[in-house]
Write a structure and sequence with these properties.
single chain, 379 residues, mainly beta, Jelly Rolls, 3 domains, 10-stranded mixed β-sheet, disordered N terminus
């Protein structure tokens, strides 16, 4: 299925540990329903947690750490209880086995519903043999008046949200899976280039177009090529492709290529570039094996004559204008990829942005000569 292309912005920064985990949710009251205890013994270390009084938000109990082995079986014991009155609710626990910063439905290790006081809940679980080696997180949530399955990122009034550290051993070694962000991009310096790889393990979401894990590449040494054709045709899942300049500004995107179904393909001019980043991800949250081919390409006349324009003032606060084009169709796109303005413009027209929140936007201008994209800051 063909979908509208989304253009967004990402900033090239090395993520801090656990930077992807949602930690703004959890309870807004420390009364009533609460996780009273959590016990998990592993191959080393251990978690021995006691709750009450309740803690607002996501409690960071990550100083408590346990070592688990990939492919091994364990039992976690959790007392779902209360620090006050007894009210019905639900609870759930997850371990982020693939270390992508997201507690996914398939990573749930146990769930409960009922009214405290209740017996201790003992959940038997197996660490997948394909779990990623290294440090990750266990999250336990009890939500008063909640219903299964719970949202691990939700905010609610009464209950608990507690995070612990888990160190997985004998799983998949991610050292060969470079490219989780721009600072660790997979290098490409000879062409034609072909690689079959996967974004289903060892990668997190660093490029906020979709929630799918991303793989970053850096392209260099392409001076002999006037154009570059980047193709994901033949991949096993619905892909999305972003090309960025050396500063991290998106210069080309593609969702569904005309000749390879739901896979992506794009051709760009190398003029003015000594290096380029490309980001491979899936549409929505899709993952799987992909085949990346990079080589000499041919641009159409429209692509070669794409219009260049100037935005002023930039940064802008209430209005802005464009210079260098007689008329065209302007789309103003926010950092989430949503089009917040779409209108016909000319070089004398002021565009009202007084109702838009501050942030970085992309201005996409389509004229008879082609399509150009520039970045704009709204203060």
């Amino acid at each position: 299925m063909t979908r509208l292309l989304l253009l967004t912005i990402s900033f090239f920064a090395i993520p801090a540990a656990f930077s992807q985990y949602c930690i703004s949710g959890g309870p807004t009251s420390n009364a009533d329903s609460n996780v009273e205890s959590v016990t998990l013994n592993g191959d080393a270390g251990g978690i021995n947690y006691t709750g009450c009084p309740g803690v607002l938000g996501v409690e960071q109990a990550t100083a408590q750490s346990v070592v688990l082995g990939a492919g091994s079986n364990y039992t976690i014991s959790i007392q779902f209880g209360t620090c006050g009155g007894n009210y019905s609710g639900a609870a759930q626990a997850w371990i982020d086995f693939n270390q992508n910063g997201v507690f996914e439905a398939g990573e749930s290790i146990g769930s409960w519903s009922g009214i405290p006081p209740t017996a201790m809940s003992n959940f038997n679980f197996t660490v997948p043999s394909g779990a990623t080696t290294g440090q990750t997180r266990l999250r336990v949530i009890q939500q008063e008046a909640g219903a299964l399955p719970l949202n691990p990122c939700a905010s609610f009034t009464w209950g608990s949200a507690v995070d612990f550290s888990v160190n997985i051993q004998n799983g998949i070694d991610c050292s060969a899976y470079t490219g989780d962000n721009a600072a660790q991009a997979r290098p490409v310096s000879s062409y034609p280039f072909t690689e079959t790889h996967s974004n289903s393990i060892c990668y997190s979401n660093q490029n906020p177009v979709y929630s799918s894990p991303d793989v970053f590449y850096i392209l260099t040494n392409f001076a002999s090529l006037t154009n570059l054709k980047v193709s994901l045709c033949g991949s096993t899942f619905d892909t999305f492709l972003t090309i960025k300049d050396s500063q991290g500004n998106p210069i080309a995107i593609n969702d569904d290529a005309p000749n390879c179904g739901p896979q992506s393909e794009v051709t760009i001019s190398t003029q003015g570039h000594t290096s380029l980043y490309l980001v491979v991800e899936g549409w929505n949250n899709q993952t799987g094996d992909y085949t990346l081919n990079i080589g000499q390409g041919t641009l159409s006349i429209d692509q070669l004559s794409a219009t260049h324009f100037r935005i002023y003032p930039n940064p802008a606060s209430s209005t802005f204008q464009i210079d260098g084009v007689e008329s065209g169709i302007l789309n103003l796109i926010n950092a989430q990829g949503a089009v917040v303005r779409s209108l016909e413009v000319n070089s004398t027209e002021e565009i009202d942005i007084s109702d838009l929140p501050s942030g970085i936007y992309m201005v996409k201008l389509e004229t008879e000569s082609g399509v150009s994209v520039q970045k704009m800051m709204i203060e």
